[in-house]
Amino acid sequence: MPYLLLTLSAFIWSGNFVLSRAMNATIPPAGFVFWRWLVAICVLCPIVLPRLRKEWPLVRANLKLVCICGFFGVTLFNFLIYTAMHSTTAINAALVNSAIPVFILMFARLIFGQTVSLRQHAGIALSLAGVATIILQGDLARIRTLSFNRGDLLVLLAAVAWALYSVALRRYPQGLNPFVFLFSISISGLLFLVPFYAFEIHSGALMSTNTPTLLSIAYVGILASVVAFTTWNIGLRRVGAHVGGQFIHLMPAFSTMLAVAFLGETLHLFHIVGIALILTGIVCATFRVAKTA
């Protein structure tokens, strides 16, 4: 079940990745993050408010964790990604985003002394090889044509932010309802975002209100925020960030399948090889944990 939850998160976020690129000229980044999480809070209210009084002492005792997760997972990661989509390509973003599992392993080891087995290292290598196969379209010569810009640096910083968020979940308080936790970090994240959004409005960057923008906000607010964050948090708590982080590598594979299904793009052999390598790497990285669970 944890692996299915992590896979679902990666699938939903693949759609969010494509959507943010498509809407970058219509929805400013801070506004996108603000309205996304405001929708998420509204959706969570009927679920959380009846429980909040009972669980508030547990939330208050862990306000430091709530603020850390709100800042890195809600505010910083999303703001950097949505800003980066204005100045980088989807290929470059997917390439840099694939560094997240590596950062997760690094921070898990530095902060918590988490050990990583040889099998898990092999799984990471296989998954990265699969991602590279898809991005380079099976041709190593394409490395020469890749160029990087300001947007790529922002995606790299976002990857660091998401890794810190994922590793921080190790301190998740036992007994706290996952929806109450998500509600708490959502409010925390919005508070951190207010200065960015205020500056954006002051500079005249406003969101156009039309059907595409409203549907986009609904998708990222309900699916990419409430559903994907909840399944990711639950999955990571059960298998650990150093294992669950490998499922980020599914995003390029899912993005390929979505493009074939909805954009009419052609499925090539390098797609199949890349997806096979990613799946093999994930199985390799998670097998030991599943075996000893």
Automatic annotation (TrEMBL):
Belongs to the EamA transporter family. The keyword Ubl conjugation does not apply. Its main location: membrane. One of its GO terms (cellular component) is membrane. InterPro entries: AA-Vitamin_Transporters, EamA_dom, EmrE-like. It comes from Geomonas limicola. It is a multi-pass membrane protein. It is found in: Membrane. Keywords: Membrane, Transmembrane, Transmembrane helix. Residues 3-135, 150-285 form the EamA domain. Signal peptide: none annotated. Pfam families: EamA (PF00892). The chain crosses the membrane at residues 32-49, 61-84, 90-112, 124-141, 153-172, 179-199, 214-235, 247-263, 269-290. This is Permease.
